Amino acid sequence: MVTRILIADDQEGIRGAFRLILDAQPDMTVVAEAADGRTAIDTAKTIKPDVVLADIRMPGADGIEVTRALAGTGIHVVVVTTFGLDEYVHAALRHGAAGFVLKRSGPTLLIEAIRAAMSGDVLISPQLTVRLLRGSGRPRETSTVVLTEREDEIVTLVAQGRTNAEIAAELFLSAGTVKNHVASIQRKTGARNRVAIAAWAWATGRAEP
Questions:
Q1: Element (H, E) at 110
Q2: For 121-147, what is each residue's pLDDT tens digit?
Q3: What is the CA angle 114-101-139, rounded to 5?
């Protein structure tokens, strides 16, 4: 199965370099390019690629807006950027990004991020993970979300990277029950995926990485 990719970046040279890298992979093909965020959104909704690589800073709409606009469409957005700022990572994850990769991380990580997105995982450049997801001194966000005691337990374990099966074993629950709790947490917090739940938990001080 070949992964269909749309590259959104306002620099033609970057788009060309990414196309060369990705088209050389046996399981990937670049089906479209966009030089601004609005075109990326419109094109993605029309041709429905599997993955959109979105630069964080683009005219028309930035990578966060692209992520937000494509949430719930089944299209995975991997944010690729030069700028690894705290607020960008948190905003991208909260809006459902399927990855956050620094351009300087190199082609191997870019390819891995796309494959991770397709398998339902989220890959973040290692340079960012500890510093950014710990908050790096950012003030904690306040939240009015009310969770049950069980949901609080599960949020803590999700933030530690545990799978549903691992959580079920630790809390003596069925995997299906854990899945239902995770879905409830997503509804309450507005999180798009498990990484977004973790980002919310870290940002509000409910859990530590």
A1: helix 107-118
A2: 777 776 665 555 555 445 556 678 899
A3: 130
Q: CB-based contacts of 21: which residues, under 8 Å, 6+ apart?
A: 107, 110, 111
Tell whether the model's pLDDT for residue 208 goes beyond 70.
no
Angle at 41 between CA 106 and CA 121, to 5 degrees: 45
Q: Output the pLDDT for position 204.
A: 82
Helix (H, G, I), strand (E, B) or coil at 129: helix
Residues contacting residue 130 through CB under 8 Å, at least 6 positions apart: 209
Query: What would the 3-class secondary structure string for 6-33 be?
Result: EEECCCHHHHHHHHHHHHCCCCEEEEEE
Question: Which of 186, 192, 160 lies closest to 76 in space, CA to CA?
Answer: 192
